[in-house]
Amino acid sequence: MKFGFVKWLVSKLLPSAWRDLFSSDGGSASSATPTPPVSTSNTTGLTDAQVQALTTQQIAGMTTSELNALTTAQFALLTPLQAGAITTSQAANLETADLRALTTAAIRGWSSAQIAALTTQEISLLTTQQVAALTPAQIAAMATAALNAMTTAEFAALNSAQAAALTTQQISHLETADLRALTTAALRGLSAAQLDALTSTQIALLSTAQVGALTTVQIDGLLPSQIGALTTAQVAVLSAAQVSVLGTDDLQQMSTQQFAALTSAQAAALSAAQLAALPTADWAALTTAAIRNIDPLALAAVTTDEIAALTTAQAAVLSAAQVAALSTDQVAAIETADLRALGSAAFRALNAAQIDALTSTQLAVLTTAQIASLTPAQVASFNSDDLRALGTAQFAALSSAQVAALSPTQVASLETADWAALNTAAIKALGAASVAALTTAEIAALTTAQAAALTATQAAALTTDQLVALETADLRALSSAAFRALTPAQVEALGSDQFAALTTAQIASLTGPQVAALPTDYLNALTTAQFAALSTAQAAALTPTQVAALETADLAALSTGAVRALGAAAVAALTTDEIVALGSAQFAALTSGQAALLDATQVAAIETQDLRALSTAAFHALGSDQIGVLSTHQFAALTTAQIVALGTDQIAGLSTDHIAALTTAQTVALETADIAAMSLQQVAAITPEDLGVMSGAQISALLSVTPIVLDLAGTGIHTSTASEGVSFDLAATGSAARTGWIADGSALLALDRNRDGAINDGSELFGIGTRLADGTRAANGYAALAPLDSNHDGLISAADAQFKDLRVWVDANHDGKTDAGELKSLADVGVVSLDLHAIAGTATDHGNLLGLVSSVTMSDGAQHQMADVWFAKEKVAAPAVQLSELLAAPAGEVLTHDTTQPATASVAATVAHMSDAILSAEQHRLHTEENHRSGPLI
Asked: How many of the other CB atoms lie within 10 Å of CB of 598?
């Protein structure tokens, strides 16, 4: 026994070579003798080299105490082979430090039985490196208790291969902390069966990182109950790929809280089939972000119940693409509150079919923002019921582009309240065809603001019935451009009441054709203010019928420009009442062309102040017939400028009454050409006052001049024509002119005032060349002779102081010169007295007018003719009147109406009766001249 121990000791202490030698001495004995046990005292002193030399048999033969007697450093030196020799009993009793000292290789070398033999305490004390070194088989061999004894740090050290080795039994009993300690890599190593072994509690306790690390295959392999066990935090970390593999059973197991946790990216990953499988409650639980990111095609696959289950908040986030993908059934299933929640962009995405699918109830609840967001194409797709379902507020929100898309049929179907709600921009955008389609009720429902917005094109499209339906206020609101666009037929369709209500601006905007088409009662319905607004173009369009029917007050309200623009036919149509109604300013505006068209009746109706207002051009345009009808009162009212404007043809149209009515101011204004154009009768009608203020040029311009002529032969007064007469200064102006002259048997009554034995000019005859005591000219020969009636008996006889000075000039040779023997006293020729009681004469002789006629009594008692003869002048160009030649205002009338002056009274009394006779004589003269073209034209 002792020898055996020595041998054992030697084997322990000596190198192997020595041990072999030692052993060879008694090999049989060695094999027959068992290895003595190693005591604690024996192993305690072993060196590291000796420990490394220990055989597996020696190690397996050690007692627990002997094995535990090795130091931790010596345990760290054990090779995998040596460590593998440790028995399960030894393993179960290893000291903590010694166990933790084993290398990972040594631990890896253990058998499953050794690992299984470890106590839970030992397991919990393994280092993370040791745990990480465990083989999958070792892991699988661990009891659940042992596994649960592992610390979280140890579990965290497990790799994917080790995790994959866990049995379903082990997994199902893992503590939650241990399970959560598994790395994502380790977790990803679990098979579907392993994962299925996890309880719902375990699943719920996985970290979000672990859940997010699961592969799609693992997620797909999870049981529906496990999916349902996921926390909202876990659900939130699922990737889009993970979500995409969730089965319909999985989704149906998910709670509303889980669905609410889905992110937008996750929702975007949901397929059509997945969405269709969602319970309505879960569908409603999705967040707005999730809803917003659902694929449009997937959304198109959901049921109408799911669409109906959308919350208002969810509906509000639907994108345009999502809404556009909805089916008509889905659109119809949207609840009204949800429909109202749709954004403008989303609502704009609805196509015509979707719009058509909306129910009237849905349309009625649309917000004004949604209505405003509709595209023109969407609006155009509304049927009549759809439009009628909209409220006034919704119609008020329609834009101009939207309203422009309405068809005539749609417009005609609008309710009047809705139509009235359209804003002015929308009204303005209506097409012409749509406007024409409006019912009369819709027209009547227009607000004044809407009517004011109608464009010219729209107004032109209105039917006559529509125009008649316009309310007065709306009609007044039409813009000038719109009103101007109305056709004559449209304007004519307006009632007179409507027309009378038009604004002055509208009246001013009427076109010529519109004005011309107006019935007379329409015109008469206008106020004076409206008439005052008529433009020149409008006035020019008035027809003769219209003008003739105008009320005088309306005509009087026309502006001067409008009056000036009246057409020729319109002017000619003016009634006398209308002529009277025209104001002076309006007459002042008449053009020469218009004035020329006034007929005699119209001219005669012109009031004096209006006549005076006529421009000189207009007055000059009046024809002789028009001038001829002027009353003496009218004529006397003419301005001097108008008198100056008289043409020679107009002068010819004046009656002797007109001439006699001339005021001295007018007379002064007469042009010499006009005076020269006067007939003998006209000249004879010039009053003494007028002759008294005439200048020398004017007197010289008289076509005829007057001296008194005596019939000495008793055969009547005889004269010669102006062309056969003489050149003599009958008017005593210093300028001789060829005039008619006395013929044989007749002589001129003369007074040789300068006693030079010759008659030098008309101042020494008795006529207009005679200057009266006041310096004015005598109007005629009798007026010139009357001052010599010193006894005022109406006769010039020997009873008068200057009778003896009077002479008769018998120009025997008709040369206009006083030759010897031609100048005789009255006694020489047998004249006893000259009668101043002259009457108007009508006779002419060779173009010379016997204007005033009386008699001369001869010594034999015979009564010969005595006359104031207006010798006709040969026409020559007369010089213009010079202002320097104008005389001062005339003195009082030379021939007064004093009964003590019979000659004067007689002359004055007869002037008023001369007019008709002179006119008759003038007609005769013109007829004579027509037959004697060689004579001068008067």
From this structure: 24
Please give the Cα distance from 170 to 180 (Å, whole number): 15
Neighbours of 697 (CB within 10 A): 20
CA pair distance 295, 271, nearest whole angstrom:
8
Query: What single-letter amino acid sits at 729?
Result: D
pLDDT, mean of residues 483-493: 86
Q: Which pairing describes strands 806-809 and 746-751: parallel, antiparallel, or unpaired? A: antiparallel
Is it the case that residue 104 has pLDDT exceeding 50? yes
pLDDT digit string (tens) for 627-643? 888 889 998 999 999 89
Neighbours of 334 (CB within 10 A): 24
* Greatest mean pLDDT among 654-663, 678-687, 745-754: 745-754
Q: What percent of the chain has pLDDT over 70?
A: 88
Angle at 220 between CA 215 and CA 226, to 5 degrees: 100
- 169 CB-side CA count, 13 A: 8
| Res 16 pLDDT > 60 | no
Burial zone of 15 (CB within 10 Å; 0-12 exposed, 13-18 middle, 19+ buried): exposed
What is the token pair recorded at 526?
A: 């206008």
pLDDT digits (tens, 9 = 90+) for 684-703: 788 878 887 888 788 877 76
CA distances from 504 to 462, 479, 483 (A): 22, 11, 12
Determine the Cα–Cα distance for residues 6 and 799; give it in Å rounded to an integer: 225
User: What's the per-residue H, E or C state across 3-26?
Assistant: HHHHHHHHHHHCCHHHHHHHHHCC
Copy the structure tokens of residue 221.
Answer: 């392999």
Distance CA 471, CA 509 (A): 19
Q: Give, as one character, the DSSP assignment of residue 771.
A: B
Helix, coil or strand: residue 238: coil
DSSP letter (8 states) at residue 873: B
Q: What pLDDT is stored for residue 43 in this prediction?
A: 65
C-alpha 2/C-alpha 832 separation (Å) is 231
Band of pLDDT at residue 483, cut at 50, 70 and 90: confident
Binned at pLDDT 50, 70 and 90, residue 924 comes out as very low
The span from the CA of 683 to the CA of 678, in Å, is 6
The residue among 236, 298, 233 whose CA lies nearest residue 264 is 236
CB atoms near residue 924 (< 10 Å): 13
pLDDT confidence of residue 157: 83
Cα angle: 219, vertex 221, 225; to 5 degrees: 85
pTM of the complete model? 0.51
State how far the Cα of 468 lies from the Cα of 498, in Å rounded to an integer.
Answer: 8
Q: Given the structure tokens 């990972």, which residue do they identify?
A: 104
Neighbour tally for 798: CB within 10 Å: 12
Share of the chain above pLDDT 90, in %: 27
At residue 105's C-alpha, the angle toward residues 103 and 107, to 5°, is: 70
CB-CB contact of 126 with 99 (8 Å): yes
CA distance 804 to 705: 26
3-state percent breakdown (helix, strand, coil) of the chain, nearest 5 = 60, 5, 35
Secondary structure of 116-140 as H, E, C letters: HHCCHHHHHHCCHHHHHHCCHHHHH
Whether 919 has a pLDDT exceeding 80, the answer reads no
Side-chain-side CA neighbours of 628 within 13 Å: the count stands at 13
Q: Are 659 and 685 in contact (CB under 8 A)?
A: yes
In 810-847, which ranges are E strands?
823-825, 831-835, 839-840, 844-845
Are the C-beta atoms of residues 755 and 879 closer than 8 Å to each other?
A: no
Q: Is the separation of the CB atoms in 548 and 575 below 8 Å?
A: yes
